[in-house]
Design goal:
This protein is mostly beta strands and 323 residues long. The protein has one helix at residues 17-20; strands at 30-32, 53-57, 60-64, 67-71, 74-79, 82-87, 91-95, 107-110, 124-127, 132-135, 155-160, 166-172, 189-193, 196-200, 203-204, 218-219, 223-227, 232-236, 251-255, 263-267, 282-287, 292-297, 314-315, 321-322.
């Protein structure tokens, strides 16, 4: 019998190809928006011909309309006998309405104005109702390139224009009282659903937040909720998830088909700085409409514990939700 009435089946884990696959492109397929020729010093567009391209990693991806947008991360390429790694500091997009293979895919590169954080494993939350992305709240700077100090915490939006590009806007500046007390974390469990984005746990360290650049790395307890309609942030306890409300390198996934406003599933990762992994025998369930945590014991072919993994899901024909 289910402990939580909205979900009865947690099944096998699927690979999220959108966020986890290295992407290749042809040297003839590079496109840029009109502003791309005005890149800042050391800004790297991250579009390299496939004869030199090695891999891409630690980016964040989301689909809006017919375009896949790829923000941040790092990429590596061959330079003679050497392999060079650089942080990506432009926003890339791919038109999913077109047919392509690795050798023919066209990447569109949109430059970022001064002030937009250039991070790895960063937040890139898409609000479908407003057709807009939000970024800047989570992530850290890359060890490659200039390896600068982390930028001040601020919230930026990106409005797609339907052609693979769009416009940037600072929504909440670093000195705005709306984000007083917030620190940028990394490796938290994040998901977007309905009108909210959630960040569970994570780590605050010297490459994620400017205010902690001289301090030790520490776990960030609690649940951060971002209302994408009002642009308000709320911090709350996550002791319903575990005793300390902490997790790092786990995953969160939104299931829209259960509950009045959907549910968020938190799974995997480490609950502290040890190597002990959180098992998949029990899944933490956060109900969006009541802001309450539940615990769901699962059955079937349960995956082995893991961290820093990908997750994807789809409604099944049997009334369950397959992951």
């Amino acid at each position: 019998m289910c402990l939580f009435r909205y979900i009865c089946v947690i099944s096998h884990v699927l690979l999220d190809l959108v966020q986890c696959t290295s992407l290749f492109l042809s040297a003839d397929a590079i496109q840029s928006d009109p502003g791309a020729s005005k890149l800042e010093n050391r800004q790297t567009p991250a579009v390299i011909g496939n004869d030199r391209f090695v891999r891409r990693a630690l980016q964040t991806s989301a689909v809006a309309g017919t375009y896949l947008y790829i923000d941040g991360g790092e990429f590596a390429f061959r330079n003679g006998d050497s392999i060079i790694a650089q942080p990506s500091s432009t926003l890339l997009s791919i038109d999913l309405s077109l047919d392509w293979v690795n050798e023919t895919v066209v990447f569109h590169s949109t430059s970022k104005p001064s002030g937009v954080p250039k991070l790895i494993t960063s937040s890139f939350w898409y609000h479908e109702n407003k057709d807009i992305f939000y970024t800047g709240i989570t992530g850290e700077v890359s060890d490659f390139g200039d390896a600068p100090e982390p930028p001040p915490l601020s919230l930026w939006s990106f409005k797609p224009d339907g052609t693979g590009s769009g416009s940037w806007k600072e929504e909440i500046s670093a000195d705005d009282p709306a984000i007083d007390g917030l620190l940028r974390s990394v490796s938290g469990s994040e998901a977007v659903g309905g009108n909210i984005a959630l960040v569970l746990g994570g780590v605050i360290n010297g490459v994620s937040d400017q205010e902690t650049s001289d301090g030790p790395s520490r776990l960030s307890p609690g649940l951060l909720e971002f209302d994408m309609t009002s642009l308000n942030f709320t911090n709350s306890s996550a002791t319903g998830f575990n005793a300390n409300g902490t997790v790092r390198a786990g995953q969160m996934h939104f299931v829209p088909s259960f509950g009045p406003q959907g549910i968020f599933l938190a799974m995997g990762g480490n609950s502290n700085y040890t190597d002990d992994l959180i098992g998949f025998d029990d899944i933490a369930v956060y109900e969006a409409s009541t802001r309450k945590w539940y615990n769901q014991t699962v059955s079937g072919n349960i995956p082995e514990p893991r961290r820093a993994f990908c997750v994807a899901g789809i409604n099944s024909t049997e009334g369950s939700y397959e992951m």
